[in-house]
Amino acid sequence: MTARAVVAPPSPVRAHAPGVLSRCRGLVRPALEEAVGRLHPWVGEMAAYSFGWCEVGGAPTDAPGGKGVRQALAVLGAEAAGAPARTGVPAAVAVELVHAFSLLHDDIMDGDAHRRRRPAVWQAYGTGPAVLAGDALFALAVETLAATQGGPHAVRLLSAALGDLVRGQADDLLFATRPWTGPERVRPDEYRTTAEHKTGALLGCAAALGAVLGGAPPATADALDRAGRHLGVAFQLVDDVLGIWGDPAVTGKPVHGDLRERKKTFPVLVALDSSGAAPRRVTALLDAGTGFEEAAALIEEAGGRAAALAEARRRVDAVEAALDGVPLPAGPAGELRELLGYLLRRDL
C-alpha cells in the first residue's frame, strides 16, 4: 500500500495497524524503560504513568499508550541506511521521550484534563510535578542521544526540531487569541506552517535521526526529514477532517468535537477565508455555541473539507517524491510507505 491511496472521505472502517509498529515497540520498549529507570523515582513514576505503564502510586498496569509512530520511524530510518534495526533504538528512545515531554506540557497549556482516556499527568500529580516530569524527559532525551557515536550531529538535529516545535506551539496558542474574521484572522497558509512545526518537525526528526545513527549520507537523512514534515501536515489535515466529520464510533471523539471546542482548524479557516455568507454565519454559530451540524454543512459547502483533503493529497505526493529521490532498501522503504499509509488512513 502506498501513501497516495489513503486520503479519502471518512468511512466507518478502521485501518489495521501495520506490523512494523509492534515490531519496533518490542525492540524499543526495554531501552525506553531502562532510560526512564534512571530518573528520580517520583519523576520516573510520572513518566511511567504517562507511557501507560503504571497507575498513580506506581502499581503496574497496561493502560493504552501511544502507537509508537515516532520510534518506528527512527528504527526504519536506521534500516533505510542499511544498518541493523537496533542502531536506531537510541534515536527512537530520544524522540519518544521528547514526544512524551511535549504532551505533558501541551496538556497543561491547553487545559486538557485527560490523555488517552486517563487523567492527564498534571491532573493526576499536579501542575508543578507534571512540568518537572516533562523537563526531566527532555533532559533524558538529550542525554540519550549525546551518548551515541553520532551524538553531536544527532543533538543538533533534535535541537532544531525542538525549536520548530516551540515555534509551532507558540503560534498555536496565539491563534486562539485572534479573531475569526477580518484582517487579523488566521490564514490557511499560516496554519499549514504551524502544523509542519508542531507535528511534522518531530516526525521528520525521528526518521532522520535513525538514518544519521545508521550512517546514512546527508541526502538520505534530509529526504527522510522532508518526508516526515510533509507527513505531519497531512496527518494534521486528516485529523482536522475527522474532528468535524469523523464517526464517533470509530474516532472515539464526539461528533463535531472541534467545532464545539471552537478550534481554528484548516477546514474552518478555509471556510472563513471564502466569499459569500459562510464566514459570517459560521462565525455566528461558533460564537453562539450552537448549530454545529449547520456549521459543519456550511464549512463543507464553502470548500473546507475538500480543501483539507486536497492539501493532504499534495503532502502525500511530496512524501512520495522525497522517498523516491534517494536510494532506499526495498524492505524499509516498503514498511515506511505502509506506515505512512496507515497514519493517514488510521480512522478514515
Q: Can you tell me about this structure?
A:
The chain is an all-alpha fold. The protein has one domain (3-329): Farnesyl Diphosphate Synthase. The chain has helices at residues 19-36, 41-51, 69-80, 89-110, 121-125, 127-146, 151-175, 188-213, 218-245, 248-251, 257-260, 266-272, 278-288, 292-301, 304-324, 330-345, and strands at residues 114-115, 118-119. It has a two-stranded antiparallel ribbon. Helix 9 packs parallel to helix 16 and helix 12 packs across helix 15. The two termini are 15 Å apart. The relative contact order is 0.14.
Keywords summarizing the entry:
two-stranded antiparallel ribbon; mainly alpha; 348 residues; Farnesyl Diphosphate Synthase; 69% helix; disordered N terminus; 2 strands
Chain-wise SSE layout:
Layout: H1 19-36, H2 41-51, H3 69-80, H4 89-110, E1 114-115, E2 118-119, H5 121-125, H6 127-146, H7 151-175, H8 188-213, H9 218-245, H10 248-251, H11 257-260, H12 266-272, H13 278-288, H14 292-301, H15 304-324, H16 330-345
Antiparallel strand pairs: 1-2
Helix pairs in contact: 1-3, 1-4, 2-6, 3-4, 3-8, 3-16, 4-6, 4-7, 4-8, 7-8, 8-9, 9-15, 9-16, 12-14, 12-15, 13-14
Q: Tell me the structural class.
A: mainly alpha
| Helix and strand pattern | HHHHEEHHHHHHHHHHHH
CATH architecture group name: Orthogonal Bundle
Task: State the total count of DSSP E strands.
Answer: 2
Q: CATH superfamily, called what? A: Farnesyl Diphosphate Synthase
Q: What share of residues is helical?
A: 55-70%
The main sheet comes to: 2 strands, antiparallel
CATH class: Mainly Alpha
| Percent range for β-strand residues | under 5%
Low-confidence stretches: 1-6, 8-14
- Return the average pLDDT rounded to an integer: 92
Task: Give the N-terminus to C-terminus distance in angstroms.
Answer: 15 Å
